[in-house]
Amino acid sequence: MIRVAFASVGRVRVDQHFGAAEGFVVYDVAPDKATLVGVGAFAAEAMDGNEGKLAAKVDFLAGCAAVYVLAIGASAIQQLVARGIQPIRVTEVDAIDALLADLGRALREGGVAWIERALARAGRSDARFAAMADEGWTG
Fold this sequence. Notes:
- Helix content is 38%, strand content 24%.
- The chain is built from four helices and seven strands; from the N terminus they run ββββαβαββαα.
- The protein has a single domain (2-135), classed as Nucleotidyltransferase, domain 5, CATH 3.30.420.
- The chain has helices at 54-60, 74-82, 96-109, 113-135; strands spanning 2-7, 13-14, 23-29, 34-41, 66-69, 86-89, 94-95.
- The model has no long low-confidence stretch (mean pLDDT 89).
């Protein structure tokens, strides 16, 4: 399973520029289903080069493997990638349901590089916590 966000004001279509996004919807996506797990709302922002407005959005997306956007600037890309979040730009206003179906298919069939990396990172994290649990508590 992976967690994916979509920049969307109406929660139906990817229709927002990352820096000016007023909303994000977040889903946990498995091969056979997608579950809405969060919605974030942000004040309307001008696309004015003010980098400070990006931090709250990047923080909100912590734990996501990817974020789908209509457009995104270089600084936002850099900040997301540094946090392990793959920015994905759609070429037109795409329906979130259709993108979720595509993600489920990609999880079943494999072969999408960023999804493979996200699954590998999640596996390493799960293995690390399992190893700590196996060690037990001493004190």
